[in-house]
Design a protein that fits this description.
single chain, Arc Repressor Mutant, subunit A, 3-stranded antiparallel β-sheet, signal, Serine/threonine kinase 19, STK19-like
């Protein structure tokens, strides 16, 4: 039990470290960098929550309305309701947009092939469409991992077949 708790704490610390690294890289040199640093230093270290309300931000952490607006503009907070916010990862929206478009493009490549199946080696050697910003190998691993295709071993290599969902 203690070992499991220690592993969870270790994963949480690693996630926090990655989050802090991502945010610090994003804000470097921007006008709201001081406000974001204040948020990271005072709020994230003292509060494990992922949701924050206005009363707590103003009273407990000493932020002003303008600073909260800067945090939203910086992408560190995203609006949950009027007067409350979720913790956010700056730039995550752009990544998700590229991820979804790329996944659809690769699935479309398989959809258009005969019998809705293609050899993995053939797919890897194809020219990636413009929508595939994260790279064809990334999206191939994604669709295999998400079980959107079945991997069928053949004498010619692995065959990717769209699932019947």
């Amino acid at each position: 039990w203690m070992e499991e708790k220690s592993q969870r704490a270790s994963k949480l610390m690693m996630t926090l470290f990655l989050f802090l690294s991502q945010v610090q890289e994003f804000i470097s040199g921007k006008e709201f960098a001081r406000t974001v640093k204040k948020f990271l230093d005072s709020v994230l270290t003292a509060c494990p929550d992922i949701s924050f309300d206005k009363k707590r931000m103003l009273r407990d952490f000493g932020f002003r309305d303008t600073e909260i607006t800067q945090l939203v503009n910086a992408g560190v907070l995203t609006v949950r309701d009027a007067g409350s916010w979720w913790l956010a990862v700056p730039g995550a929206g752009r990544f998700i947009k590229c991820f979804i478009k790329g996944r659809k493009a690769v699935l479309g490549m398989i959809q258009k092939s005969k019998y809705k199946e293609v050899l993995l080696s053939d797919l890897q050697s194809r020219q990636a469409p413009n929508a595939v910003k994260l790279g064809l190998p990334y999206h191939i691993h994604d669709i295999i991992g998400a079980q959107l295709v079945d991997c069928v071993p053949t004498t010619s290599g692995t065959l990717l077949r769209l699932t019947d969902d």
